[in-house]
Design brief:
The longest helix has about 100 residues. This protein is about 75% helix and about 5% strand. Strands 6-3-7-8 form a four-stranded mixed β-sheet, sandwiched between helices. It is mainly alpha-helical. It folds into three domains: about 220 residues, no CATH class; about 100 residues, no CATH class; about 300 residues, Ferritin (Up-down Bundle), CATH 1.20.1260. About 0% of the residues have low confidence.
Amino acid sequence: MTLPIERARTRRPVTWVTIIGALLLPVVVGAILVAAFYDPAERLDNVTAAIVNDDEPVTIDDQTVPLGRQLTAGLVEGSDDLPSNLDWTITNDDDAAAGLADGTYSAVVTIPAEFSAAATSTAGDDPERAVIEVTTAPDNLVVDDAITAQITSAAASIMGQELSEVYLENVFLGFTTLGDQLGEAADGADQLASGADQLADGTAQYVDGVGQLAAGAQPLATGASALAPGIGEIADGAAALSAGGYEAADGIDDLAGGASALSTGASDLADGLSSLADLTAQIPEIPQGVIDAADAVAANSEEIGQFVTGSAATLTALADECRAAGDTGTVCAEIIALSDETNAALPTVTEILDDSDEIAAGIAQFQDAGPQLTAALQASAAGADEIATGIGGIAGGASQAASGVREIAAGTGALGTGADEASAGAAQVADGVQQLADGAQQAADGGTALVTGSDQTADGAGELASGLHTAADEIPSYTDDEAQTLASVVADPVEADGIGSDLFGATAVPLLAALALWIGGLGTFVALQAVTARALTSRSASALLALRGLAPAAAIGAAQGLLVAGVVQIAATYEFGEWTVFAGVCVVAGIAFAGVNQALVAVFGGAGRWIAALVAVLAVAAGIVSTVPGWLSSLAGAMPTAPAYSGMVAALTSDGSVGAALVGLTVWMLLAFIATVIAVARRRSAPAAHPLPA
């Protein structure tokens, strides 16, 4: 069955087969394009790639870390964000190279031998970035390389994020450990300061007691020195008594009185020495806790210095990392301030630790001096008692001598000998007491220096304790869960929400639909005549002739739009409301494209079809990626496919205006119809040299 429609470039009539072919052309084109490009993420398993794992696992804390194996598993297992994954094959270098050359593999991911070592090098002094190599086949299709690179980069990024989380979690837990250690060090410094205060108080009491001892021993030494010559005179008098006989009776009486007074003085001397011994015994002992604390500080001064210096160096390194990273957050600001305070207090702490041996030795020497001094005083008191007893005996002998000259004469020799011994003993007592006074003065001077040193130690330990407490309070503390959560956020601080797995996005369907309808309009006027061949002989108006050529093409275009929208709905399953608007835009676009293609063929002839093909190429070039040159994008935006594309996008995504797109298509339709009318009018006239055929 033929139709009253003219066929292009032939006199054969148009049949329903021709019309059906024109109708189905954009449907077939659209179905092929949608089937090929819509949602390629569901068919990633059509891409075959190889994995070559040359990684050598490392051992950390007696635990094997095979990161290459883990990355391989991550690539093979895929992601929850994609419905499918590449068809991965785990193989070796030779097979991968051969498969890449013969087309078996589209890409090869090679994990080098040092991958695990480099990925875990952040825990050492020489960190190194782990690198994997992606090699693609030279004859890959256009998007295969991008798909492989995207999936591989995503897997590597996820593994890098996991490694960063582990590293940061250890850092945050290290903050907690450092804070605990600083707290313990601060408590120890508090104890040291308290012990130094006690030492200073006890030493001050000791200095007071020793000062009193020195003050009392000095006149005692003077009296003992004066006692020695008197006893010598007694010895001389005893000799004269022995020689003088009865004349010595009166002198012996005097001697008895002087000996009694001397005995009383010696007893007083013994009592004074005993009092001094008791006073010395009352000097408080240095607390054992102070001695132990000073010995512990002296014994561990090097370890304490290393710990304090290491802690200060750790804080300085953390502060330097914060400054280098430009981080102005609260944690970094507190770490920098804490580092400055620690470094300011470090010289004082180091000086105290350097003098800890001398302080401990002085405390021990002072502790030993007290008992020795008490023993010396007690011995001196006993000697003074013996002197008093001896002088008392002298007094008794003198009294007996007063009652009888002969007995006195007989006993004067023994008296002289005893007096000589008493004189020598008194001189020794004087020397001992003088030494005691000198030693007590030296002990007082040393105790004063010890008090000053103890006060300085207490002040320095107090400053150290205050600084360490401040440091411990400023350093954040985290539980395991808090450290894990914070590490997860810091390792991946920015997350993009709303990114889908569709590699072509929501605009792919409108682009393919517009392209299919444009090709349908082009195909329609490959089969149909744009301008009737009877234009010269027809009596109808040019506009009516142009409309007769457009009407069947417009009907075919409308049907094409509806069919293409149906194919899209089968593939994408949009909501009915969205699809209804989309189908309406497709129908209007099919009619407008029919009018524009008619005008191109009517005005330019066969070149018009070439121009129509160029318009299709521009639509594809500007619709795939935004990196096209600006002039090319502007040129494509001026084509009739642009309002159709923007209207379809607006119908499916609510981005843009469907009304504006329909207005644009209507303007193109009117301009194309005017151009067709002008072309028809031009064909209705012929030069005089070429009359019309009979």
